[in-house]
């Protein structure tokens, strides 16, 4: 690390759980973030500020006025720009050392099969069920840890899928991909702005823990936030023996 890096990351280096070695691992890592919206904004800003060496951002959308209530990486001046370009600009303003790859694309199985193997950690900051399952399946196929978050209205949830751990459940063990599911989206249901900040920042925290080796991850636990009562609950998750995604691989 250079003298400037020792200063920039000094508050991490002071932590016994991170230290110089943990910070070196963060600097050498590559985070793949799917979604540059409400969850992706705080996630990418914290991963960038904390010194993740390389970040690949994938999102198909452009910044819209209705996004600005909660998607804090974007600005009024950047309405109409691709979200990935806007978020890349925000990261670079905080930490110009981060190498950001901005892909304006939909995260389908083919793209994920190209990107996931190159990543050290994957963050699901997407907003729909099909993409969540495509990301989970790609992470299981390629043995990469996944931090999955979701927020709608006043409700949030977060978990970690770690296929490197043989007993760790995947997202499809808990939420079957073939289940009849009524998609609920922010555009129709609304979303309480700070909750995407809470969950997105927690996704960054779990990713940085996985990268640096600080503390046990959320693998095997689903945290659920009721933002009205401001209460967390924890559900312990088990692998489903007939999971269509991970059972055949283990
Ligand atoms: Zn599974």
Automatic annotation (TrEMBL):
The record's keywords, sorted A to Z, are: Nucleotidyltransferase, Transferase
This protein's record includes keyword Protease:
no
Gene Ontology MF, one: ubiquitin-like modifier activating enzyme activity
Enumerate the spans annotated as THIF-type NAD/FAD binding fold domain. 9-245
- Record Pfam families: ThiF
Tell me which domain of life the UniProt entry assigns to the organism this sequence originates from.
Answer: Bacteria
Q: Which InterPro entries did the record assign?
A: ThiF/MoeB/HesA, ThiF_NAD_FAD-bd, Ubiquitin-activating_enz
- Say if the entry is tagged with keyword Signal: no
Under the cellular component aspect of Gene Ontology, which terms does the record hold? Answer: cytosol
Protein family: Belongs to the HesA/MoeB/ThiF family.
- NCBIfam families referenced in this protein's UniProt entry, alphabetically: PRK05690.1
Per its record, how is this protein called by name? Molybdopterin or thiamine biosynthesis adenylyltransferase
